[in-house]
Amino acid sequence: MAIVPGDLPQTTFTAEPHGERLLVVDDNQDNLDMLARRLKRRGYEITTAQSGPEALAAVARLRYDAIVLDINMPAMSGLDVLRELRRHYSKLELPVLMATARSESDDMVEALSLGANDYVTKPLNFAEVVARLATHLALRREFTAMRGEVASKVRSTDAMVTGTVVDRRYEIECQIGHGGFAVVYRARQLSTGQAVALKVLRARRAMRAGADGIEYTRFRREMQVIGAVKHPAIVRLIDSGSLELEGGWSSFDDETPDGSTQTNAVTEDSSSDHVAPAMLPPTARVPFFVMECLEGETLAQLLERDQKLSLEDTLELFFPIIGGVHALHRRGIVHRDIKPSNVFLHDGDQRRPQPKVLDFGIAKLKSEEAEEQMTVGFVGTPSYMSPEQALGERDIDARCDQYALGVMLYECLCGQRPFTADNYTQVLLLVTAGEFTSLAKLSAEHEQVSGIIEKAMHRERAHRYADLQDFGRALLEVAPESVRARWRGSLDE
């Protein structure tokens, strides 16, 4: 695709981008890069592909709002790609703008007959490309809004299909996580085009216990916590609401007895492997909340790949985590399930990944006394659980989170957990005994930080640090100078 330099003034455009995601396909790398850059400057999110198979693979991975597709490509032509796209998407669901030479009128006719929404001729006039895209994207937005009006109910929250509109505001793109209580979807906020994470309670769980059950309580609690605490290391709440389910019989996938989105916790009685269909009342409503959409991986995934981290890299992650969890504690909230799978390393605009603490379903609020109604025995994950949690004590406080952070710090630096065994029961016995191999014995280079970890993980909570500020200050003293300079003063906020 060749771009004509003399574009029309921007004032000729009446439709502004809404953050839509576009796929640009051309086998010429120079033309592809030029068009992609100019569309990106207009406010669109751009993905590029240099062949037909690459384009179809991109569409299979992610949902796009429109495609600019070159007709003449080797091996698989743009017409072949269009033919395959129209097997799955209508013209309103996925607008396709074909790029063709002025002399190829037969190709134009065939493209339109195969379902192309429009075409532009080469050499491309960028203003014309943007104007035609804006028109078809506006039509798509209207179609999506109308579809939301008509289909305001969904059959099940467990497997919402791509294109489902939730509460007339969010369009589902794909499922990105699931657990026993809830399912998490990547979605698009229709009003802004912003990518978001939409977490919705599983319908069967919601209907089984009702609004006063564990499921609803934990779900509301997580929403309440992330809405109350504003900190860069705490995932950000954007919105909340409820969606209406169609009545009738609904069957659901097998579930794990876990309230989180990624990991198994031993906090609730297990259900049987076979789950009978649940009858949903005609006016059933299921809560959801919307969070910032994170890109990257969990700390657990990083450790699985790299085994262990350097002291510098570990502390660069830990200081913001400590700050975020301390912000929870200042609001009277104890997380109770700090572990690597509940720390997400977001690939944001910063040079380093930004850690975000997740999953507050079993967090303890200071105002909450009836804990026995929320849990069965104890809450948490055995390998990261404090001795007082493992013993089922009721008066759990912020020092259990400090203990879990100590376990995580140990694991990051030596590549193994302090307590490992063949089953949960044996792990719990080791935790309550409080004896583990010192980090200094496993790695002499970490002798200084070893004593800090042992204090944070002391069997008796009275012997741990008074709070996370003290814990962080102790770590700051043994941090490399580059890390110390960056984080000095942050623990006093």
Automatic annotation (TrEMBL):
GO terms for biological process: phosphorelay signal transduction system. GO terms for molecular function: ATP binding; protein serine/threonine kinase activity. ATP binds at K199. Pfam families: Pkinase, Response_reg. The modification 4-aspartylphosphate is found at D70. Residues 249-277 are annotated as: Disordered. Keywords: ATP-binding, Nucleotide-binding, Phosphoprotein. It comes from the Bacteria. Residues 258-269 have a biased composition (Polar residues). Residues 21-137 form the Response regulatory domain. InterPro entries: Atg1-like, CheY-like_superfamily, Kinase-like_dom_sf, Prot_kinase_dom, Protein_kinase_ATP_BS, Ser/Thr_kinase_AS, Sig_transdc_resp-reg_receiver. Residues 170-476 form the Protein kinase domain. The keyword Transmembrane helix does not apply. The keyword Nucleotide-binding applies. GO terms for cellular component: cytoplasm. This is Phosphate regulon transcriptional regulatory protein PhoB (SphR). It comes from Enhygromyxa salina.
